[in-house]
Amino acid sequence: MKIAFQGEKGSYSEEAVIKRFGKEAEPVPKRTISSVFSAVEIGETDVGVVPIENSIEGSVTETYDLLLTTSLKVIGEIYLKIVHCLIGLPGSDIRMIKRVYSHPQAISQCKGYIASMGFDYISIYDTAGAVKLLKESGDMTSAAIASERAAEIYGMQILARGIEDYGRNYTRFLIIGKNSPPLAERNKTTIIFTLTHVPGSLYHALGAFALRGINLTKIESRPTRSRPWQYNFYLDFEGSIEEEHVKDALAELSTKTLFLKVLGSYPMELIEYE
Amino acid sequence: MKIAFQGEKGSYSEEAVIKRFGKEAEPVPKRTISSVFSAVEIGETDVGVVPIENSIEGSVTETYDLLLTTSLKVIGEIYLKIVHCLIGLPGSDIRMIKRVYSHPQAISQCKGYIASMGFDYISIYDTAGAVKLLKESGDMTSAAIASERAAEIYGMQILARGIEDYGRNYTRFLIIGKNSPPLAERNKTTIIFTLTHVPGSLYHALGAFALRGINLTKIESRPTRSRPWQYNFYLDFEGSIEEEHVKDALAELSTKTLFLKVLGSYPMELIEYE
After folding, report:
1. Considering CB atoms only, which of A199, A220, A228 is closest to B170?
2. Most CB atoms closer than 10 Å: which of A184, A229, B156, B243?
3. CATH architecture for segment(s) B85-161
4. B187-267: CATH, from 3.40.630.30, 2.10.220.10, 3.30.70.260, 2.60.40.10
5. CA dist., res. B268 & res. B78, Å (int)
6. Minimal Cβ distance to B207: which of A170, A198, A203
C-alpha cells in the first residue's frame, strides 16, 4: 500500500503514516500538501496523509483550502504526539549552537526555548528537511528541530529532547482516499457548508446537530474567496452518514445552506492524553 | 497622535493608518505584531493598528492569539483594499525578473501570477521591507510585491499593477488602545469565550445572539493551549455593549461559558465593495 505524505523521510507526517499503517506501508514523500492530494487523485498512491490541526498552533489552513475543491474523501484520522528534539551534527555540543533550522510551526512551538537559548532561527519547508539540510551543510554551529526519528534516520545527534513550550502538543492528520472506508462503532463525519449572511444563520445551521444530540468536535471558517467576508464552514461531528439521525441532520442542514459537501465518514480515533 | 503599526514605512498597515487617521497621525513602524501591542501597553504610542483578517487568506492567527492575553481594548476597525504591484529597481524590465521578494501572505495572494511568470519567490517579514531590501541589494533580476505607495516611498519602478489572483482582496485591521471609543449609530463588538465540551454547547452559546436578532459578522476558533482540542471562540457581532439586548445576550452567554472576555465595542466601518 502506497501512502503519500508531506515532507522528507523522518517527518512527523511519515511518523503518523507508520503509526497507523505499520511496516506494510510504503510511505511516499511529497514536497507540498497539494502534491499529496494530487498523488492520490492521479492514483500514484493509494491514500494520502495530511496534517489538519495542531493542538497548540491551530488549523493547517492549506489543508482546509484543498479539501474544498478535492474530489477525494476523508477516510480516517490519526493523532500523533509531537515531541521536538534539538538535533546537531555528530560530535557537536549545545554550547556551540548559534541558530536553528525547522518548519515554521515547529519553530513557533519552541519559541520560548529558542529565545531562552538566544538562538537565531531560519524557516525550512519541513522538520526532517531541516535535519537533511544541516547534515549536508556540515555546520557545527547550527541545529535542527525535528523528531527523534529524524535524528536516527540521518545519523545525527540529539542535543536536547522535549523542547516544545507546551507539553500537550498533538497533531491531527486526515487520511484521504478515493473510496469510503469500513466504519467502526464510533465514527466521525467531516462536512463543508456555506450560509447566507442573515442574523442567526450559523445558529440555525448548528441546530440541525444540537437538537439531535450530535456532538461537534471542530468548527473552522475559511473565506470563500468569491465574495469578501463570506465563509465556508468546516464541521467535524461524531456519527456517520449511515446513521438515521445524521442523515436527518444533513437533510435539515441542506435546506439552510448555499453549498454543502460531505467529505466523508470514518472511524474515530480514541486517544488518551498524557 | 502616535500610532504603532507592523512593518516598514510603505506597508499596507501604514496605509490603513493613513486612511483612517490622515495627515495628523504619526505612524510608528514596529517589526512584529506583538511589538505593536507592547508599544500601546507601555504608552509609547497612543493606539496601534493590527491586521486581523484578509478576505482571501483568512485570519491572522498571531493577532487573534495576542488579543487573548492583552489588557487593551479593540476601539475601531479599518478595511483596506489590497492592490499588489510588481516593483523593480529604476530602469529594470519585467523580462529581466527571475525572483520576487514579499510577505508570505502577499506571495500566496499572487501565487497564480508568480507561477505563470516562472518566478522563484522568497519570504520576507513585510511587503515594504521587501522593497527596501531590493533597493539595498541593487539586484536588477529581482522584484518585490508591495503597494504602489511602497514603490513611491523607496523611489522604485512599478513593473505590473493588480497582480493578485483574486480581485476582491480586502484586509480588515483592528485599532487597539487603552480607552473605549465614542460610539456611532452602528457599532460592532468583539468577544472571546471558551465552552465546555458537551453536545450543543456552541449552538446554545450562539442562541444568546440569534434569539435577539443580533447579527454575527465573524466566528473564529483557536486552541486554548491548556487542554488539547479545547477552543477559544472569537466572535464579532453588530451592536454595542451599551445596548440593552446586547447586555442581555452577554449576560445569558456568561452562564454558559468557562471564560468570557469583552474586547470592546467600536464604530462599524461601512464599506461598499467594487
Report:
1. A228
2. B156
3. 3-Layer(aba) Sandwich (3.40)
4. 3.30.70.260
5. 9
6. A203
Region(s) of chain B under CATH 3.40.190.10: 2-82+169-177, 85-161
pLDDT for residue A23:
81
DSSP secondary structure string for all residues of A187-208: EEEEEEEEE-SSTTHHHHHHHH
Given this model, what pLDDT does residue B125 score? 84
Q: In 3D, which of B8, B146, B7, B171 has the Cα closest to residue B78?
A: B171
Out of 3.40.190.10, 3.40.50.1000, 3.30.930.10, 3.40.630.10, the CATH code matching A2-82+169-177 is 3.40.190.10
**Sequence-distant (≥ 6) Cβ neighbours of residue B112 within 8 angstroms:** B165
Residues of B with a catalytic annotation lie at 171, 173
Amino acid letter at A42? Answer: I
Global confidence as pTM: 0.91
pLDDT at A134: 97
- Mutation pick from B203, B221, B222, B225 vs chain A, by most beta carbons of A within 10 Å, is B203
A171-211: pLDDT as tens digits = 999 999 999 999 999 999 999 999 988 889 999 999 999 99
Quickly state the pLDDT bin for B222 (edges 50, 70, 90).
very high
Give the mutation candidate from A54, A55, A224 for the B interface (greatest B CB count, under 10 A): A55
**Residue from the list B58, B198, B209 with its beta carbon closest to the beta carbon of A61:** B58
Q: Which of A58, A207, A226 sits opposite B203 (nearest CB)?
A: A207
> Tens digits of per-residue pLDDT, A12-62?
999 999 999 998 899 999 999 999 999 999 999 999 999 999 999 899 999
Instruction: Report, as an integer, the average pLDDT of A222-245.
Output: 94
Q: Where do the CATH 3.30.70.260 domains begin and end in chain A? A: 187-267
- CB–CB of A217 and B207 under 8 A? no
Residue with cell 523580462: B95
Say yes or no for a CB contact (<8 Å) between B203 and A210: yes
Cα gap B171→A229, rounded to integer Å: 10
C-alpha grid cell for residue B158?
A: 512599478
Q: Tell me the mean pLDDT in the region B36-55.
A: 97
Residue A49: CB atoms within 10 A of its CB come to 28
Would you call A229 and B55 a contact, using CB atoms and an 8 Å cutoff? yes
CB contact under 8 A, B56 and A223: yes
ipTM of model over 0.90: no
Q: Residue B68's pLDDT is what?
A: 96
- Nearest CA-CA distance, residue B247 and chain A, Å: 17
- A173: annotated active-site residue: yes
The pLDDT assigned to B168 comes to 87
Closest Cα in chain A, distance from residue B234 (Å): 11
- Residue B5 belongs to what H/E stretch? strand B2-6
pLDDT score at B217? 94
Catalytic residue among A45, A171, A189, A190: A171
Q: Look-up: residue for cell 483550502?
A: A65
Beta bridge partners of A54: A58, A171
**Binary contact (B221, A219; C-beta < 8 A):** yes
pLDDT of residue B227: 85
What's the gap in Å between the CA of A155 and the closest CA on chain B?
30
| Residues in Cβ contact with A243 at an 8 Å cutoff, skipping those fewer than 6 apart | none
